[in-house]
Design a protein that fits this description.
The chain is built from 19 helices and 13 strands. The protein is α+β, with helices and mostly antiparallel strands. The protein has a single domain, classed as Cytochrome p450. The strands form 5 sheets. The chain has a 4-stranded mixed beta sheet with strand order 1-2-7-4, sandwiched between helices. Helix 7 runs antiparallel to helix 8 and helix 13 runs parallel beside helix 19. The longest helix has 30 residues. The chain starts with a helix and ends in a 14-residue tail after the last strand. Bound molecules: protoporphyrin IX containing FE.
Length: 500
């Protein structure tokens, strides 16, 4: 009888799989044989390009409208800044993240700000922008960042620089650094990932796995593929479920502990601030996990791209050092205000992220039939993506030297200047622009300055061009192996941090 039951189940699963495969083929037009779709399905683009984003950039550069459509993905991709402004501002309501996106990240992020539209989004946006706008939280962020730099990052790299022939993976270091910072900032919890022994944090591992596997869902030609795997709790979906459980358990425990203390006023972290606004523990968990995702990999990815570029630009490194010396009159950098005066450094950061945006593309789902400013018709339900990576490499936007790393393009009479964020949607733009932009800039500038003031950094494999791993955020597949040496004659001023 048991064997009979198993056979019936097998037949049933096979039948369901057959129906689903048929629907997938039908719905996704997998049979489309146009040149672009064929190259996508067979991955033949990879004969010519290292990365999918490079192939998209090539297609977009060569499209007369700077917009393309990948039929098998139901995806219109644009690099036209007027289209970007239209989606993110003019017709914002017609281009929500949509149910498709929420479903992909829903298990991991729940109702967190990253994953919702409408009222849930508006409430969190208002609450978060009020909190993040306060001077006290900015000062807190600055203190958290500087503590991590002075007590972990510098000692770790300094110890490493004394080893002979040592090669250090800067990408790994930056991931550890940014995880410590965002956990302390969001939860008031210190995972100590950047401790000198470089411990493995269970939370960081579970968090990485959950975001990686969630991103994999988005790469299937139809959501039915991962939905079936989730239904039967098999393969990657089983691992995703386990990693999410671990992250949730951790977040809930922090919230429980904080509730037990019964008082939030003497805590500076984001969670404590949000606890004043809502008591729902699941909602609080979702909000904070979204912040971890928003602020961790993006910062690590920006630093990795920036240091890959800087290691090949000695004159830019010299200019950063010279500007800092001028601004601080040879003392250590001691305040947020001093950091804001470093216009060249800000230009370097923007220029680095132009060529290596941490979030390479961003998608919305069109609600009602529409036509973009460049004349492209968008059918209701189509996924519409703006491609920040391609936009950073467009001659039509940046001129013939678009592939050259040139911070000066961001300066007007020595002062940092940005024309319109829609040409550079690295932090998105319009109504859903990144809420952590200021904090991220402070973090990036502080790390760059601290490291360049103390160390000379060179790539271990200078001729190796970056190849990216698939994921929500750009990650160098081979890491960023570097050699570091302490700069001679550098007296290190005692760290002194004031937030005045
Ligand atoms: C270099 C670092 C960063 C980059 C490049 C970046 C970029 C972005 C982008 C492209 C979005 C839009 C995402 C989407 O809607 O799908 C976004 C949203 C957001 N970011 Fe960042 N981000 C960075 C750092 C941070 C940090 C450190 C925080 C937190 C402290 C943060 C908090 C947020 C939040 C809360 C949103 C959601 C805004 C909304 O939906 O209204 N980000 N960011």
């Amino acid at each position: 009888m048991a064997i009979e039951d198993a056979s019936i189940l097998m037949v049933f699963i096979l039948f369901i799989s057959f129906i689903c495969t048929f629907i997938i083929f039908y719905k996704t037009k997998v049979l489309c044989r146009c040149k672009i779709c064929h190259a996508y399905i067979t991955s033949s683009w990879s004969f010519e390009f290292d990365n999918l984003c490079d192939w998209y950039t090539h297609l977009l550069q060569n499209s007369p409208t700077k917009t393309i459509h990948i039929h098998v993905l139901h995806n219109t991709i644009t690099s036209d800044h007027q289209n970007v402004e239209y989606m993110l501002k003019t017709r914002f309501e017609n281009y929500p993240k949509g149910k498709g996106f929420s479903a992909i990240l829903g298990d991991f992020l729940g109702r967190g700000i990253f994953n919702v539209d409408g009222e849930y989004w508006r409430f969190q946006r208002k609450m978060a922008s009020l909190e993040l706008g306060k001077m006290s939280i900015k000062s807190h962020a600055y203190e958290v960042v500087n503590y991590e730099i002075d007590h972990r990052l510098i000692p770790l790299i300094s110890a490493f620089s004394r080893k002979e022939h040592g090669v250090l993976d800067f990408q790994d270091v930056f991931r550890r650094f940014s995880f410590d910072v965002i956990c302390k900032f969001s939860f008031g919890y210190d995972p100590k990932c950047l401790h000198e022994s470089l411990p493995m944090s269970e939370l960081a591992i579970a968090f990485d796995l959950a975001s990686q596997l969630s991103a994999q869902r988005a790469m299937t030609t139809s959501p039915l593929v991962w939905k079936i795997k989730r239904l039967f709790n098999v393969g990657s979906e089983k691992r995703l479920k386990e990693s999410i459980k671990m992250v949730n358990k951790f977040a809930q425990e922090v919230i429980r502990q904080r509730n037990k203390l019964g008082c939030c006023s003497n805590h500076e972290d984001l969670l404590s601030r949000f606890m004043d606004k809502t008591k729902d523990p699941i909602y609080l968990r979702d909000i904070v996990i979204s912040f971890l995702l928003a602020g961790r990999d993006t910062v690590a990815s920006s630093l990795t791209g920036l240091f890959w570029l800087l290691a090949q630009q000695p004159e830019v490194v010299a200019a950063i050092r010279a500007e800092a010396l001028m601004a601080t009159q040879h003392e250590s950098l001691t305040s947020l205000e001093q950091l804001h005066q470093l216009h060249y450094l800000q230009a370097v950061v923007y220029e680095g992220m132009r060529l290596f945006p941490p979030i390479q593309f961003n998608s919305k789902f069109c609600q009602l039939d529409d036509t973009l400013p460049d004349g492209t018709f968008i059918k209701k339900g189509t996924r519409v993506t703006y491609h920040s990576y391609a936009m950073g490499r467009m001659e039509t936007i940046w001129g013939p030297d678009c592939l050259v790393f040139k911070p000066e393009r961001w300066l007007k009479d020595g002062v940092f200047y940005q024309e319109t964020p829609f040409m550079y949607p690295v932090f998105q733009a319009g109504y859903r622009m990144c809420l952590g932009k200021e904090m991220a800039l402070v973090e990036l500038k502080s790390v760059i300055l601290s490291l360049l003031q103390r160390f000379d950094i060179e790539l271990a494999h200078p001729s190796r061009a970056p190849r990216f791993s698939p994921g929500l955020t750009a990650t160098f597949r081979d890491g960023l192996p570097v050699r570091v040496s302490e700069r001679r004659g550098q007296t290190l001023p005692k760290p002194h941090v004031s937030t005045s």
